[in-house]
């Protein structure tokens, strides 16, 4: 597939940015990406997917309006994907101001820069399932489910969602948000609980006597594969009309079940290797979280094909390969 389109990805160094860069390159896009300091940033995720050398990188501060205007003017993108901002729910409780600035204010700055320049481009904003907060167990959140954020991260994501909707409605901009539920991949940093679980389990299977220390296991999440979720982002910007979409698998699984599946796949009993530390419980955690992707399936032709079992196999296989390379 070939195209003359040019895309600008804010926050390209993360998991989603790397998978999105590869997807767009495969579709023939000229891909540009940003980070706060490209000379001192780790772009290993891009390198792992083999796309680093084909991405043009720019240093950008989301809180520097002149800098934003300059980069957008230089790149002249057809599409902007806004994936930047503080990405950890847990960290947001200890860094609420930085989270609000980078996520909420950062989104408004990008939107205002686009409005100021008056370019007819399309804008995607990364919202989050955390916006929904606590919902009744067994229910599935869709685009009409009210928001009830329970962390500084979620509050910031709600603000970014409503700012995007406001610019769409008030200024006629093509701007939309993807309300993405949890999505994982081998590119996740080890500070994320899924990578922490898999990494420790593989180390224990290889003979380590370490204990895996976790917080609350009685939480349910809807987990998908990041490589599929970035395809939904792209599809959202190809639609005739800008709309917001829930992107999810539609299946919830407890963290305890996730842990059990990882360890049992390595012929281990997780209960022999896991310790619970109540200090790791979040101040206001979400017990149950599951999405309804019916609208995305109907209007975008998108659905998640990678199930949780296949995702866990992928994560374990990658971690085993990494451990062999270290030997």
Explain briefly what this protein structure is:
With 327 residues, this protein is of the alpha/beta class.
Describe the fold and architecture:
The protein is α/β, with parallel strands linked by helices. The protein has 2 domains: 6-183 and 223-247, NAD(P)-binding Rossmann-like Domain (Rossmann fold, 3-Layer(aba) Sandwich); 190-221 and 252-289 and 307-326, UDP-galactose 4-epimerase, domain 1, CATH 3.90.25.10. It has 11 helices and 13 strands. It has helices at residues 15-26, 44-48, 65-75, 89-94, 96-117, 152-171, 193-205, 226-236, 255-264, 294-300, 308-326, and strands at 6-10, 30-35, 55-59, 79-82, 122-128, 174-180, 183-184, 212-214, 220-221, 224-225, 245-247, 253-254, 274-276. The strands form 4 sheets. It has a 7-stranded parallel β-sheet with strand order 3-2-1-4-5-6-11, with helices on both faces. The chain has a two-stranded parallel ribbon with strand order 7-10. It is globular, with a radius of gyration of 20 Å. The mean pLDDT is 94.
The CATH architecture of the largest domain would be: 3-Layer(aba) Sandwich
Separation of the first and last Cα atoms = 41 Å
Give me the strand/helix succession. EHEHEHEHHEHEEHEEEHEEHEHH
CATH class of the largest domain: Alpha Beta
CATH topology value of the largest domain? Rossmann fold
The value of Rg in angstroms is 20 Å
Helical proportion? 40-55%
The CATH superfamily name of the largest domain is NAD(P)-binding Rossmann-like Domain
**Total number of beta strands:** 13
Q: How would you sum up the global shape?
A: globular
Per DSSP, what share of the residues sits in E-state strands of 2 or more residues?
A: 15-25%
The average pLDDT is: 94
Structural class: alpha/beta
Number of domains: 2
SS summary, helix count: 11
Q: Please outline the major beta sheet.
A: 7 strands, parallel
